[in-house]
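Students often ask what a holo structure prediction actually looks like on paper. The answer is less mysterious than it sounds. You provide the chain, you provide the ligand, and the output is a string of discrete structure tokens encoding the 3D arrangement of the protein together with fe (ii) ion.
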Amino acid sequence: MDKMHEENTIQYTDWDDGFSVGSSLIDNQHKEILSFINYVADYFRKGKDSEEEFEKIVHMGIQQLENHFCTEEQIMDAAQFAGFTEHKIAHDGIKKELEDKLQEVNSTNRAEKMIEISDMLSAWIVNHIKNYDLKAAECFTAAEKQGKQGV
Ligand SMILES: [Fe+2]
Ligand SMILES: [Fe+2]
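The corresponding structure tokens follow.
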């Protein structure tokens, strides 16, 4: 079951063993992403807000997400996984949505928007793991066993 903690209007999603795709490489990336999103939501919820930190968060977050999607895509592509295209479309969709949402952030709405984005992203990641990553678990597990771990 998902472990959700509700604080004010923000929901924090933690790692759940049910999310495991049988690859420590992918599982660790998912854990890092969820924990980073929680850090971001928490940072802005505490009323902290700096342009410099915002820039750093956006840079790190996008890098982390792109690296993760790339890792999964390389493994699925190499395994000629039947659901590859559909899975990649889902990755590209969230990247686009994230970029669009980040465009809406300005110095007056930054904290509010970043909390909203963190919330959206954390829900998306959990749904995506359940609806896509777990369906590709066979590829990820096999790749790890073969020592082919993508990027
Ligand atoms: Fe994925
Ligand atoms: Fe994933």
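The pocket of fe (ii) ion (ligand 2) is lined by residues 30, 68, 72, 129, 133 (CB under 6 Å).
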